[in-house]
Amino acid sequence: MEGRKKVKDEVFHLNTPLLESINMSKRVGTTVYLKMENTQPSGSFKIRGIGHLCQQLARHSKGVICSSGGNAGMAAAYAAQKMGVPATIIVPSSTPPLVVQRLQDQGATVKIVGKVWDDANTEALKLAETEGLTYVPPFDHPLLWKGHASMIAEVTASLGPSVKPGAVVVSVGGGGLLCGVIQGLKDVGWTDVPIVAMETVGADCFNAAVKAGKLVTLDDITSEAKCLGAKTACKQVFDYSQSSELTIISELVTDQQALHAIQTFLDEERVLVEMACGAALAAVYSGVIVRLQNEGRLPALLGPLVVIVCGGSTINMEQLTYLKHKLQS
Amino acid sequence: MAEVFHLNTPLLESINMSKRVGTTVYLKMENTQPSGSFKIRGIGHLCQQLARHSKGVICSSGGNAGMAAAYAAQKMGVPATIIVPSSTPPLVVQRLQDQGATVKIVGKVWDDANTEALKLAETEGLTYVPPFDHPLLWKGHASMIAEVTASLGPSVKPGAVVVSVGGGGLLCGVIQGLKDVGWTDVPIVAMETVGADCFNAAVKAGKLVTLDDITSEAKCLGAKTACKQVFDYSQSSELTIISELVTDQQALHAIQTFLDEERVLVEMACGAALAAVYSGVIVRLQNEGRLPALLGPLVVIVCGGSTINMEQLTYLNVCHA
């Protein structure tokens, strides 16, 4: 591959398509727009925030280090490669060989440490300090949120000056994407646009915190939506949930509903996304939006819905078959 | 009104395809266009030029051209009429109607529908949208090459461009686009499937030929005669167009591999282009000396297409795996 210059102002993410989904619009009764973050380099929205963070912190660094084998790791590896700095990804031994291979194909050095993510993360933080590497957090950093916020500015431009969303639908893992969306809505003066924040049962740290009125730590992640699998939401997203200035509606779907969503999306929109993304899509396919309207929590006459299709590359046809066997029997 | 209806689609590097070919492979993701395929580029441009104050547009394609015509007409606020033969699946009719078009079922095969569309265009004063044979279509399609240039940056030139060929509209657009940016020396690998190979047949015969029938499952490549312009291009010494064929099995394998590795489901017609990588056509052309051994980056046009779903994929597997 040809070499890349370190360009100070270069962004690594793309202005992704905003596509109207006729099928989803029919289901909801209002126009549904899909922000296709699955078409980002490295396969998910994460390149926005991680690209921004790396540009700000890692430009003259000895390299970046990350403890995610998933989409954050792929984004970190991609950003580092574009910047011409080394990337080290620490993963636990439970990580599938295919994941390790994909990270290596993206130019990263992969080290296998410990049995669970916490072990890998502890090692990553340690090496960041001892080796002088830039640590790339998965979701809890203002630079990540600032990077993610760019998607809302793009949505504004795509919709045109006279169109305002009736609501935005996002998946929530640790809250990084949600913080970015909120930041983006603030930037364009749309803080009154409600956000429907979707999680799966068993990977619902944000919903648990909202219900408890304080941050909680889940004992375990029991959902198949592994990429939503943060045990504790970040403090910023919890603070947002308590703010009277914002309308954040925290909802849950089951793994079965998330799976049904990714199957329907594949069939009707011809794109295969992860279960984590399916949580957001299920807001439409499993009638969450319509129920919220019936409950009076969203307006009956709803403006256009903007669904963030976060994407995710840790899914393939074999994984889809596995999920079907596990969840549908 | 200067509005264009198509998007500047992502150009994505495919690591998996790059490993297979031994050079960087970029994918121009035309599947992410509104209406599901690259066709909105040319049809959007043609409608903007010809249909702005028209009584409406009329088209005889139930497939991607029809969807693009319906979409463009809806954006322009003019009526769209799509004439389709009775063999058209109800799902296709429904999708066109959902896009705001009036659908009329006429005749048994495409030729019947097209004759009716041309007739109504004249009697009703509607703007006829041709599927592939019009300079305005090619000019519209050409925009994708300008975008590729901008995405690659000033110091990167493709080693080759890979496209699927039906009637030749996309290929003409790609050639137009390469001319516009001064890249006429970039070879084009023009892919078709056996049984939907009117361009390859013309190149082999040294003249335009009309196929008796379309026997490939890649129905969207199913033009029986290539357009004259694309044949003329194939005879030009200024251009390097390499016409290659793959089987339906190879196109099917390509769309399954693409779905598994790139997480996008495309039509068989698109699979023909992808099979240039997955079935080793590029590597073979290098071994034969028809492409350089040290090849610059490959740009594959992922034309997309919306007449595919999981049921159709299952059907194709049952018939052709």
TrEMBL record, chain A:
Its cofactor is pyridoxal 5'-phosphate. InterPro entries: Ser/Thr_Dehydratase, Ser/Thr_deHydtase_PyrdxlP-BS, TrpB-like_PALP, TrpB-like_PALP_sf. Coiled coil: none annotated. Pathway: Carbohydrate biosynthesis; gluconeogenesis. One of its GO terms (cellular component) is cytoplasm. Gene3D superfamilies: 3.40.50.1100. GO terms for biological process: gluconeogenesis; isoleucine biosynthetic process; L-serine catabolic process; L-threonine catabolic process. Belongs to the serine/threonine dehydratase family. This is L-serine ammonia-lyase. It comes from Oreochromis niloticus.
From TrEMBL, chain B:
It is found in: Cytoplasm. GO terms for cellular component: cytoplasm. Its main location: cytoplasm. One of its GO terms (molecular function) is pyridoxal phosphate binding. Pfam families: PALP. It is an enzyme of class 4 (lyase). Residues 7-304 form the Tryptophan synthase beta chain-like PALP domain. SUPFAM superfamilies: Tryptophan synthase beta subunit-like PLP-dependent enzymes. Its EC number is 4.3.1.17. Keywords: Cytoplasm, Gluconeogenesis, Lyase, Pyridoxal phosphate. GO terms for biological process: gluconeogenesis; isoleucine biosynthetic process; L-serine catabolic process; L-threonine catabolic process. Its cofactor is pyridoxal 5'-phosphate. It catalyses: L-serine = pyruvate + NH4(+). Pathway: Carbohydrate biosynthesis; gluconeogenesis. It comes from the Eukaryota. PANTHER family: SERINE DEHYDRATASE-LIKE, THREONINE DEHYDRATASE, MITOCHONDRIAL-RELATED. Belongs to the serine/threonine dehydratase family. This is L-serine ammonia-lyase. It comes from Oreochromis niloticus (Nile tilapia). The gene is SDSL.
